[in-house]
Write a structure and sequence with these properties.
The chain is mostly beta strands and 77 residues long. The protein has one domain. It has a 3-stranded antiparallel β-sheet, with no helix packed on it. The structure holds zinc ion.
Length: 77
């Protein structure tokens, strides 16, 4: 993927978490203490499964020059 800001090639990788990764349109804190908690609002980027070894993972790209991460949200909601 080409960085839309500097046009350099972005590094391929992934975003990983022990809980669901979700995007919100404001900065109101919405921490989920249970990884399997269902979405109340926001856009789910990567869902976390259930159980003690559950995790969320979504492929993404990183530009070290701009320090920007590009990620396409998972299919679904
Ligand atoms: Zn860049």
């Amino acid at each position: 993927m080409i960085c839309p800001y500097c046009s350099r090639t972005m590094e391929s990788g992934s975003i990983q978490s022990r809980g669901t990764i979700r995007w919100f349109s404001d900065k109101t804190l919405r921490i989920e203490w249970r990884p399997q908690a269902s979405a109340k609002d926001g856009i789910t980027i990567a869902s976390c499964g259930a159980g003690p070894f559950a995790y969320a993972l979504e492929p993404s790209f990183y530009c070290p020059e701009c320090q920007m991460v590009m990620i396409k949200k998972e299919d679904g909601d």
